[in-house]
């Protein structure tokens, strides 16, 4: 796993083998950030990384100048690894060890981009909880974007506020946005 662009471009990150993770591939990550680069100024946004795992996505945002990054994962080893890596790269990444669903139920802070990479074997009902909690609790800024990574075998197109998906190999990114009343009519 490596950082594909920005200040830390090319830096390799080697996570301990014992972590319960499946990092986003470099190819999929690069494609995702090409899309985001056309929509956002990275130094002006707030990012929430759910099911953060190794912190792979957060390092990409930090490398591109994002200063407000919060990672949430329930695994202590993942949180410890993210903290150690962020410290060694001198990245300002905050972490919270928590069950993501419990965190979303209690959180009040809005973010510009919310990235969620839950286990690929989640049933669709578990995937559905992510946008439901985010939009019900108004955790996404008005012009913000929720991105959920999942396998090509999962279809999230029927979920609330879904707009479109992009596929990269076996990885799929589904995008969700705040919809105004005008758009729904």
Describe the structure.
The protein is of the alpha/beta class and 185 residues long. The chain has a single domain (26-184), classed as Vaccinia Virus protein VP39 (Rossmann fold, 3-Layer(aba) Sandwich), CATH 3.40.50. Helices cover 31% and strands 25% of the residues. Helix 2 (56-63) links the parallel strand 1 (46-50) and strand 2 (68-73). Mean pLDDT is 91; it is low at 181-185.
Taking the alpha carbons of the first and last residues, their distance comes to: 44 Å
Q: What would you say the CATH architecture is?
A: 3-Layer(aba) Sandwich
Rg: 15 Å
What is the 3D shape? globular
Helix content: 25-40%
Summarize the structure.
The chain is α/β, with parallel strands linked by helices and 185 residues long.
Topology diagram in text:
Layout: H1 26-37, E1 46-50, H2 56-63, E2 68-73, H3 76-89, E3 93-97, H4 100-106, E4 111-116, H5 124-136, E5 140-151, E6 162-168, E7 171-176, H6 181-184
Parallel strand pairs: 1-2, 1-4, 2-3, 4-5
Antiparallel strand pairs: 5-7, 6-7
């Amino acid at each position: 796993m490596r950082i594909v662009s920005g200040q830390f471009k090319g830096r390799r990150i080697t996570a301990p083998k014992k972590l319960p993770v499946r990092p986003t591939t470099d190819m999929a990550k690069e494609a995702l950030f090409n899309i985001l680069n056309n929509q956002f100024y990275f130094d002006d946004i707030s990012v929430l990384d759910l099911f953060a795992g190794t912190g792979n996505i957060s390092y990409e945002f930090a490398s591109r100048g994002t200063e407000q990054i919060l990672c949430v994962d329930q695994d202590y080893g993942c949180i410890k690894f993210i903290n150690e890596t962020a410290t060694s790269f001198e990245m300002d990444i905050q972490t919270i060890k928590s069950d993501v669903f419990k965190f979303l139920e209690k959180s009040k802070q809005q973010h510009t981009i919310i990235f969620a990479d839950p286990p690929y074997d989640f049933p669709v009902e578990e995937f559905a909880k992510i946008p439901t909690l985010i939009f019900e609790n108004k955790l996404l800024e008005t012009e913000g974007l929720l991105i959920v990574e999942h396998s090509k075998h999962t279809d999230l197109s029927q979920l609330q506020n879904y707009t479109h998906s992009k596929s990269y190999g076996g990885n799929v990114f589904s995008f969700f946005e705040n919809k105004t009343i005008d758009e729904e009519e």
